[in-house]
Amino acid sequence: MEYNNTFFVNESDGTVNVNAPTTNQWTNLNFTNKGLFKKVSNTITQFNNNFGTGNFKNDIGGNIKGIGTVSHMNTYAYLSGSAISPGASPGLLSVISSTSPLNYGLSTYNCEINGTTAVTQHDQLSSSGQVNLSQMSLNVIWGFTPTVGQSFTIMNHSSIIGEFANVTIPNIANYVYKIDYNPTNVILHVYLRFYEDFDQDTYGNANIFQDGPTAPVNFVLDNSDCDDTNSAINQQQRRFAI
């Protein structure tokens, strides 16, 4: 499948389904996506081959969803209000670019998480090169209830620039979430917050805490100690005094 020398706009109420069995080139095409661009087949969709011109724009309301690979061989832009949503539910979507780094711009990565296994149970966004996340947002969509200590590799790449500009993760059971931006991947962790219990009265100092799957030594889940230097002074003792 090949489109040549034309402009194409997928409007906000439109859907483009790409189900080509082999690599498909959209050559010399100025393509603007304002609706759903859905990759059904696990193949490469290439915008502008090495000899073509044109550009790709994921515009406000535009959502790239599905599996396989989206390849940018010329200029491209991911604007504010656009989204990338890997998988049918869930799955792996790869995005590559002929220029480095691959810049996801102001788009939002909609990451569906139904379990701990990448691709089959949670989404993964992948690239073979360097990626720039400094303007991108992350939106996590829980499809199950995670437990403390679980982790999810939500992105793969060869190297990374920046961190998500905005992160939206619906809170479950007072968990806290930590994102590791590693050289070759991005991992989301599910943790608890523990507070220092310096006087070891089982009540913690709200101002000193560590996040992790288990409590460090002399750290507790409670954060209500009003004087963590004196074990005789805490919320429980105050209640008894009153």
The gist of it:
The protein is an all-beta fold and 242 residues long. The chain contains 1 helix and 23 strands.
What do these coordinates show?
The chain has 242 residues and is mostly beta strands. It has one domain (2-196). Helix content is 3%, strand content 49%. It has 1 helix and 23 strands. It has one helix at residues 235-241; strands at residues 2-10, 15-18, 24-33, 36-39, 44-47, 55-58, 63-66, 68-72, 75-78, 83-86, 92-97, 102-103, 108-113, 124-126, 130-132, 137-142, 151-156, 159-161, 166-168, 176-181, 185-196, 205-212, 219-220. The strands form 3 sheets. Strands 1, 3, 5, 6, 8, 9, 11, 14, 17, 20, 21, 22 and 23 form a 13-stranded mixed β-sheet that branches. A 7-stranded parallel β-sheet has the order 2-4-7-10-13-16-19, with no helix packed on it. A 3-stranded parallel β-sheet has the order 12-15-18, with no helix packed on it. A hairpin with a 3-residue loop joins strand 20 and strand 21 (185-196). The longest helix has 7 residues, at 235-241. The chain is elongated, with a radius of gyration of 23 Å. The termini are far apart. The model has no long low-confidence stretch (mean pLDDT 91).
Write the layout of secondary structure elements.
Blueprint lengths: L1 E9 L4 E4 L5 E10 L2 E4 L4 E4 L7 E4 L4 E4 L1 E5 L2 E4 L4 E4 L5 E6 L4 E2 L4 E6 L10 E3 L3 E3 L4 E6 L8 E6 L2 E3 L4 E3 L7 E6 L3 E12 L8 E8 L6 E2 L14 H7 L1
Parallel strand pairs: 1-3, 2-4, 3-5, 3-6, 4-7, 5-8, 6-9, 7-10, 8-11, 10-13, 11-14, 12-15, 13-16, 14-17, 15-18, 16-19
Antiparallel strand pairs: 17-21, 20-21, 21-22, 21-23
